[in-house]
Amino acid sequence: MIRHKEQIFHKLHLLSFVISIQAYLYSTYINSAAAKLGLSFTGIGLINFFLSIAYAVASITLGHLGTKVGYKKMISILSAYLFFVSIIGFTADSPGRLVLFAILQGVFFGAFFPQVEGLIAKSERLLNIDPPSITGRFTLSWSTGNIIGVAFGPFLTVKAPLVIFTMGLIVSSLTSVLIYIDYKKQKDIIIFPPSKKLLEHSQNAAVVMNKQAMRRLRLEYRIILFLGGLIYTSVLASFPKLMMLERLRLENAGFLTVGANIGVLLTFVVLQSWKGWVGNELVCGLLLSVAPLTGLIAFFAKTPVMFFITALFAGLSYAVPYTFAIFYGLLSEEEDHGKQGALHEMVIGLLFGIGPLVGGLLFDKLGGNLGLLVYALSIGVVIYTVHYIFNSLNKKQS
User: Fold this and answer.
1) Tens of pLDDT, residues 222-239
2) What percent of the chain has pLDDT over 70?
């Protein structure tokens, strides 16, 4: 009998990592190319808005099809589609073509990630893996990919844009073929020998069994995720142009903006190893303070170091509620994983459009630093209002 070595991560985590690199190479190309073409903050925001609508619509319409036809089948089909989108990317060197490319690639990523989320949640729950570990390891996989994509996207946009789309062709074609082969061998589940650590359930994860609490927490943190994500997405979209206005070189913008994604990764690492936040609304409320703090720090962002720290806190503003939202969403006891993944990605898609658009309008009107200060503080007030309302309702129900 062959004994397989116990694992923490598996091939779907690797796929999530690789596709996330490509996703952020494309998104940073769009934002950096728009800045290079001289578009205003509002113009850049509009492109992101069109992208996000495509992402959100694809998530809610195509994102849950994996439940019906098979997650791996959908991943293979969508990857073949990405191959043709990458070909179109080679011509995305004008505002009109940039919009077209943004929409087409938004459809792919909006439909793709719910398939991965659903497949991982379905397979790992069958293995009785600890719920926080299911969502935690998934978020670690894509967030590490984001760091690479954001860091090198602006640099490659200026120095070697063809590399970005050539990588897209390679990644999409290999993914389509290899996932199809994997489906033929193992059907629509992930087979791997999980480490014993993954099977040790934390006491706080018992909240998953409370359906009423799950419904309330899922809704609460999807709303707060949307709000916190507005800060994060506006920073990702506007920083290349904002740095150009501060006379920083465009090709280096990614190495400062990546602070946002480092903040995301650090949050996931901490909240994955320490699970005291599960079901603890007081602790969650304290962690949400990173949103208004982002605005205060942004006001002083004039140097590379301060730009990096601003981006870092913007990443925290997104990652904290993201962790809560995906935990309570994907681990629902009453709705299928595909639907929950699709709804989650729809929220992500919308904030990636509305954040840069509203932020861009404020940045054009008030100036980048002051605009971001007003933006983050206003969002912080709304976040705590939502948090207070949900907790008041919970106390009444109790």
Assistant:
1) 899 999 999 988 888 887
2) 91
Q: Is the pLDDT of residue 213 over 80?
A: no
**Cα three-residue angle 185-109-332, rounded to 5 degrees:** 75
pLDDT in tens, 20-74: 999 999 998 998 899 889 898 889 889 999 998 999 889 888 888 888 889 999 9
The total of structural domains in the chain comes to 1
Residue 192 lies in a domain: no
Looking at residue 311, its amino acid is: A
Using one digit for the tens of pLDDT, what is the confidence trace for 250-273? 777 778 888 888 988 898 888 877
Query: Does residue 195 lie within any of the structural domains?
Result: no
**Longest Cα separation, the chain:** 69
What does the radius of gyration of the chain's CA atoms come to, in whole angstroms?
20
Is the pTM above the cut of 0.85? no
What CATH code is carried by the domain that includes residue 16?
Answer: 1.20.1250.20
Q: How far apart are CA 387 and CA 172, in angstroms?
A: 41
- 393 is a domain residue: yes
